[in-house]
Amino acid sequence: MAIRITQSMMYGSFVRDMNRTLSDYMDSNIQASSQKKINKPSDDPVGAGRVLSSRATLSRLDLYEENIKTATGWLSTADSVLGSGEGSVQSLLTQIKEKAMQAATSTVTAENRLQIAQQVRGIMSQLVSLANTEFAGSNIFAGHKTTGSAYAETLGVSVHGENMDDYRYVDLVASPPDGGALPSRVVSFVPVKGGGGTAGTATYYYTADGGKTWSLADSTPTGEALPDSPPSPGCTISGGGVSVHVSDADVPVEPYYDPPGGANPLSDQSSLAQGTWFCVRPSAVYLGDDTDTQVSTTYMPDGATSVTSTANGYFARDVAVRLDPYLATDDTLPLNFIRYSYSVDDGNNWISATAPLTAPTMTLPVPGGSLTLDPAPTATPGTPPTLDNNVAGMQFVIHPHRADVDFQISEASRITVNMVGKDVFGGLYNYPGDLIKAWDTGTPYPDVVSGEDVYNDRPIPVGSENPYYNDGIPNMFESIGQLICALECNSQDGVQKSLESLNDVMNHILAKAAEIGGRENRLAATESAIIMRRYSEEDRLSQIEDVDLLELEVRLAQQQTAYNAVLKSTSMIMQLGLVNFL
Hints:
Number of strands: 24
Shape: elongated
Strand content: 15-25%
Mean pLDDT: 76
Low-confidence stretches: 221-228, 259-263, 435-443
Radius of gyration: 39 Å
Number of helices: 9
Largest sheet: 7 strands, mixed
């Protein structure tokens, strides 16, 4: 009985030894097959955690490298558009400048200038095509509206003549009647004596051939003589395949006076030269979106004096701001402080805050930046804040515009790969939701036809050509359009003035090209850093999980010998019987 128990114990021990040596041998074979010393968490729990961390890091680096490749494609495409290579914006602008310099000389005839104008029109169409450049099916100059065109050819208006400064506040919008084709020649309008005394009326001449022939038009229903005045607000004048809508309060237009006994302006060139010309010529309208953050006043208490508000910062979404009353029972608010609230969830929840009262303006910190009020409210303890009248409860909303297309290129770094077309090429743009301010007072004016305050539902010039948003940006499409106007109207002086604006445009495009180059350099530096980091992370991962092949071969040989020895010894011992012990 004792011998049988002893044999059973020996058998169990032999099986355990055999399984252990077999398991070690199989683990080594698995490592030889995968060349990894960690093939399951139990092989090395701490090392397995480090492996997972390293692989997650490498996965992020893969994403960053892919983003960098895509971003490089966007930026290199923009670089080729704005750069100095053949067919680029810079090269086409150089061609236009050369033609303008030729046309600015006194030896060039009117027919020569007309021929040059047709060439410039063709180059302008090429520039519109470049402004609509796509990368991988996305327009690189249209903001987030990447599926559509950034620009479309349209009509702009140049004003020439007396009282030019007053026309900074005129809303002039040109268009082909009934959406027809754009005209191939500049159409000019000259208001004349005896028209425009009634709202929506005007009497004027127009020419579509640079002044060679003129047509007289009268927008009054019966053509009766009216007192001398310019086209009235809400008036639309048409002719030569285009129409111009004039919507503004009175502007001192210098009208052309009919020469005695005739109605042909060519019979009195001196009188015509003294008048104000509205010249309809080519331009381009920006169809994308922008990055211009706007602030609107959503509530103003009765009797409150208006406040001009501006926002500064980077806002992830709309931020509502409300001026709160200064309660008479509130002794926790320091003197010369004002209480306000802000909301980042469309007014569902409000967070109270305080800010010191300053003069003449006051800045209210909000998430992402600040809101500046001009003039600042005033307050005294125990009374609501006042600004001539009570402004407690006045509300503002900061509307951030987000046209930037960004790519994540590292844990803490993003890069913008597109450019807002209107900030590069100018043209006309419909600023969404903004009131057009007619006068220096900033008061919106009523349209005579509709009787309502005029909102910006029509494109107006971008940048330095735009009195309402004068940010000093040279306007390429408007400058070229004005040059075409000067060429087709045979104005040597106008061509010379266009040369000055073209120089500003060229410098602006050069600056934008340099900005693109800077982003490309940043991408290249980031890519190099990621490559080096990848090498380091892969080396760290290899040290953690890769097997030493020489050591593995030795261990495999040892384990195979041990396993064979266990098998042989076990088979020999298990064959012994009771007789062998007697």
